[in-house]
Structure prediction request, 56 residues.
Amino acid sequence: MLILQLKDGNETVFKQVYDLTHKKVYRYFLKRNATHDTASDLTQQTFIRLWQYRQT
Prediction:
């Protein structure tokens, strides 16, 4: 259900998905990279792409 609403461009749902997953995504990248800055940048890029490509 959330995915369908996200695909429709629901910003509230996007925020919910972000709130539920951003720490896990950040920790995933942090374990694979040496710096917090890199993990933070990759996390940000992940959510930007999620929003940009939500309809595909």
Q: What stands out?
A: The mean pLDDT is 94. Residues 11-32 form the longest helix (22 residues).
